[in-house]
Structure formats: structure tokens, C-alpha cells
Amino acid sequence: MRVLVAGAGGAIGRSLMSRLVAAGHAVVGLTHGAEKARQLTQPHCEVVAADGLDPVAVRRVVSAARPDVIVHQMTALAASTDLRQFDRAFAMTNRLRTAGLDNLLAAGRAGGVRRIVCQSYCGWPYARIGNEIRRRRFPVIADGNGWWSFVHIEDAAAATVLAIDRGRPGIYNIVDDEPAPVREWLPALASMLGAKPPFHVPKWIARILAGNHLVTMMTEARAGSNARAKLELGWRPIYASWRTGFAAR
After folding, report:
1. Engineering a disulfide at 203: which of 142, 163, 218, 241 sits with its beta carbon 3.0 to 4.6 angstroms away?
2. Residue 235: C-alpha distances to residues 17, 160, 166, 240, 242 (Å)
């Protein structure tokens, strides 16, 4: 099949293109900016530059690519590290996931595309150096009872290939097998990084310092189940636990 990957320059997009080529698909990558398009050039892939928020440009790319499948991986998360300014940090990504998706859908309909695979949520990778956990700026808030699910980039890319080939319409949670509360995974990650244990702060102080979004994520979030992805896609995560995934970074 011919597959258009919108957001080819992102963490998942790069891995996804390689996996699609290996699976025998013809791949066109869409990224924002000519320089990034040049950097992404790889064998058996065509990469084009266009603004995902420009409906005319998107329609032109889709018309030229003539894809059987469109994959939406567009984000703007490279600088989204300050969760205290949550709305500001994710404003562009939210636009890409709404207006950007609308542009892909409209262009896909005009071009007769029958399948679109779209990511709808993001996680935050933690580098081994220079991050907020090492600096003890990422505390356990209140009882730390927000449950999180994680997924490795390679696992997310592998699941996307399977969704392209055999996914039915609907939602697939692509997560590891071991959801964990913040009070468990955050100290474990700090230890892996060689950092001191995270501070514990009351909820009311965290709201003042970090805002309601982060407090909710740390105290009320609920994890996802990957049961449907395993059953219908035949997907299995390489990193079945966040513990092995974190350690592998």
C-alpha cells in the first residue's frame, strides 16, 4: 500500500517510516519545513515539506501522494517541557490534532482515501540528563495516586503498522502491560537516573506552583488497557513493563 505519514519528523514518525518500508509499503513522509525534509531522506521514502495547518498545502500533498492510508502523527512537542504552562505548551499540538486532522480528513476524502490512523495522546520521555526529575522539580503530589500507562516509541510504531494492515475502526490503547501509580514509578525513575528521591508536596501547594492540569495528572489520572490491541491487532509490546522500558533508555 501507499502510506502518507504526516508528522514524519517526530519521534514515532521516524521509526514508523522505517518499519513501513521494511513491511513492503510505499511511503511518503510529510513534515514541516524544507530543512527537516532534507534530513529525513532515506531509501525508498519520499519526504515532502508542508504546513499541516494549511488546508491547501495538505490537499496538494495528498493529491500528489495518492495514498491508500494516511497516518496522522503531527505534534509540536519538542519544546513542551514546562507543564506549569500546560495550555501554552500544548497549544500548537492541540491545533495539529484538531485543525490538522480536519485538513487530512478533507484531503483524504477528496482523494478517495479509505483509511486514516491517528494518534490521540502523548507521553513525556525522560532523558537521562538535564531533566526535571534529576533536578527534583517533579514531585509526588499528595498521595501520588494518579495511574499512568507508558509505551516505548518503537512499540507505538510497531502497533501503528499493524493498525494500518488490519485495524478495525475504533480506538486502540497502545500501552505497556503494567500501569503504575505516580508514587511508584516516579521514585523508581529517579533512582534509575541516579537522582535523589522526589519531594512530596500537598495538593494545594502543587496547584499554586504547577496548576490544575499537573495536579490532576499526578493524583487522578487513570491508566489504559492494551487488551483490544493484543486481541485484534496481534500486538505485543517489546517493553512489557515501564521498568524495562525506562532502563533501556
Report:
1. 142
2. 18, 10, 11, 11, 17
- What domains, with CATH codes, occur in the chain? 1-122 (3.40.50.720), 126-249 (3.40.50.720)
Q: What is the 3-state secondary structure (H, E, C) of the chain?
A: CEEEEECCCCHHHHHHHHHHHHCCCEEEEEECCHHHHHHCCCCCEEEEECCCCCHHHHHHHHHHHCCCEEEECCCCCCCCCCHHHHHHHCHHHHHHHHHHHHHHHHHHHHCCCCEEEECCCCCCCCCCCCCCCCCCCCCEECCCCCEECCCCHHHHHHHHHHHHHHCCCCCCCCCCCCCEEHHHHHHHHHHHCCCCCCCEECHHHHHHHHCHHHHHHHHCCCCCCCHHHHHHHCCCCCCCCHHHHHHHC
**Nearest residue to 242 (alpha-carbon basis) of 173, 181, 165:** 181
- The pTM score is 0.87
